[in-house]
Amino acid sequence: MDKNQDHGFPRALLKQPEPMRYSYFRSYTVAHPKLKEANDTLSDAIREAIPGSLILVCGPAGAGKTTLRLRTEQRIATEMLKELEADPGRFAVVGIEAIPPDFGNFNWKDFYKRLLEKLDEPCINYKIKPSLRNDNRNSFKVSITNHVVAATELRQATEQAIKHRRPTALLVDEAQHLAKMSSGRKLQDQLDSIKSLASMTGIPIVLIGTYELLSFRNLSAQLSRRSVDVHFRRYRAEQKDEVNAFKNVLWSFQHHLPLHEEPDLVGDWDYFYERSVGCIGVLKDWLIKALAKALKDGGKVLTSKHLGKSALSVSQCEKMLADAIEGEAMLDETKEARARLRRLMGLEAKFTKADGNGDGPSEETELKLTTTKKRRRPGERNPKRDPIGNGKQREE
Q: Where in the chain is the domain with CATH 3.40.50.300?
């Protein structure tokens, strides 16, 4: 971010009522490096997706995944502007949030209803039952009766609505809620439902959620083949460039807090990193709450008292960090993981070091990993070359 071109919030805001100042900062976003990286990777994944495939966007809670979804929807709509003008009935993309169940299992019927609302489908609360005509054409007629709609009928209506609207992709935010089930077998059923929806509609479905979403990916070899991972990382303190990026984001936030005195947040960057676990979404929510307290006290300055009362507790941060580290370990490829894969495939577990994860050739020193030696039966000789003749070299 170019600090010389960032003039901060409009100074006229200081004369506006507190709700307007609060609303300004709440709607302010920063196009930080991790968001841009995830956005670019997701854009490529959607563009290159095989029809009916799944794209899994995973990251820690509070990384900014909802912001990523909204930016993706906006970008696709902008790119398809001419197509949408030529075909007003078409949707560029459809975004929806998966609502967690109050108790028990995930409610697919509620999910389909909400999705139909997003698709501007009428008569959702009535029976919508498509059936093939007898004219050998792939067209449907709709019968509507006033009684309770079954989940299967809503599913059929959803498939037809998606085919009619022809969106580029379906984006499901908070998709880890799809896994809210009472048994492993039902979790497989959930996976089959979302996978078949992608297959029947022929569009990629983007599942956006926390690392809990990885439980889906590991359930099926077929899904692993048809899915793409997009990792939306937090900022890591052990990476110098990521620390600098975090400081830049923090500076931008402090520069846009609509207060009479600009606070020095960057001077205590490690405190803000500690209580946000390196997640920009957590940091933004924290500053929004602190700003509300500062505005209530007159809106002159943001104090340490305002920040302390709005911060997450140490135990909350520890839990978030533990979940983040576990999820990162599941997505990061290591030399040990690749060696294990090669052993299972019957290949020699050695490879050249390239970019830290053992992928591809390199001029650097070859790394040979220990393999499991084959056990020999008692008395069985080790393989070696036996001498021929009297062992003397033949004279030329």
A: 33-120+157-231
